[in-house]
Amino acid sequence: MKSSHSQIQSATGAQFFGTTPLGHDVYLRTIRNQNGMELSVADFGATITRLKIPVNVLYAVDVVLGFESVDDYIQSFSLPNPPFMGAVVGPFAGRINHGKAPLNDKMIQLETNAGGHHLHGGSINLSNQLWRFKSATFGENPSLTYTFTTVAEAGNYPGILTLWVTYQLLENNTLKVTFKGTSTADTFINLTQHSYFNLNGHDTSIHGMQLQLYASQKLETTADLIPTGNRLSVRETQDDFGQPRACPKACDTTFILSNAHAATLYSPKNQLRMDVFTNQPAVHVYVGGNCFDTLIGKEKAAYHNLSGICFETQKFPDAPNHPHFPNTVLRKGEPYLHETLFQFQKQ
């Protein structure tokens, strides 16, 4: 007789994905909606490894960058610029100036892991930890849910965070990402999903795709990409994507959203459109994927600086140091809710 653990793995289509240096097995789980859209997620970082969108009756394009094993994901955090490939990012996505963040009349000192600043939760973060698979649903609108509980005062973040992420495939070919969380003490939180999208196919370039952003302003930043506190108009600048135009060759910018519709990405090659909707006030757009000729992507793809584009829906970087920015303090016992939709359609 199979163990209940084995039955769960079988029921969720789990497959062995490798072992961490601490000896923990990592599994990959796959769900499909009734239209043929397919999503694969690894326990490590609750990471999206594959997202296949049907473009005709014979072919589905994989629109996210990824690796073939957990070993490569682990090694990617040793690259000169870790890509956070497809992972949940936090507890605080983006940078915090010198790692200093005021909270309840105290100054919290977080790790400085990026040029003297705090980035994406520090060197030990939600992206490079093993999340616990919680549940799956099948049939119409299938889903996968993962949970993670931080150690008390991990990385100097106050309290213990208990987090959940649910990935759901809606029948209109939409990936819905829902983050929920609570904390045992007042703390900072700013989660995001860090998939690199390429509607031309993960093993190509974003060249030829069209981008539109529903934002008239962006955050002004220093040379270290730390927000100054000012908002700048993007109109008639290189960051003006108010109308569809070619994807930028480089971008690492926080755009302030005008409404829930954050972005539209279009591939003339596959006649495929992706629309991003969120309840967050900003989207940080990042172009990249470079693995420095050190790691090879899935299906032997050689990722480079134009391999993909990220839509990191979130609150503002360095928000704790700017009282007029949207609040990123999660009070003890209060619920955290973050929802983002990635909607795909043929055009």
Concise overview:
With 347 residues, the protein is mainly beta. It has helices at 4-11, 70-76; strands at 15-19, 25-32, 38-42, 47-54, 60-62, 88-89, 95-96, 100-103, 106-109, 118-119, 132-137, 143-149, 161-170, 174-183, 187-188, 192-193, 196-197, 210-213, 217-221, 227-233, 245-246, 252-256, 261-267, 272-278, 282-288, 308-314, 329-330, 336-346.
Features:
347 residues; mainly beta; nine-stranded antiparallel β-sheet; six-stranded antiparallel β-sheet; 2 helices; 28 strands; 4% helix; globular; disordered N terminus
Task: Give the SSE map.
Blueprint: H1 4-11, E1 15-19, E2 25-32, E3 38-42, E4 47-54, E5 60-62, H2 70-76, E6 88-89, E7 95-96, E8 100-103, E9 106-109, E10 118-119, E11 132-137, E12 143-149, E13 161-170, E14 174-183, E15 187-188, E16 192-193, E17 196-197, E18 210-213, E19 217-221, E20 227-233, E21 245-246, E22 252-256, E23 261-267, E24 272-278, E25 282-288, E26 308-314, E27 329-330, E28 336-346
Antiparallel strand pairs: 1-2, 2-3, 3-4, 4-5, 6-16, 7-10, 8-9, 11-12, 12-13, 13-14, 14-28, 15-27, 17-26, 18-21, 18-23, 19-20, 19-22, 22-25, 23-24, 24-28, 25-26
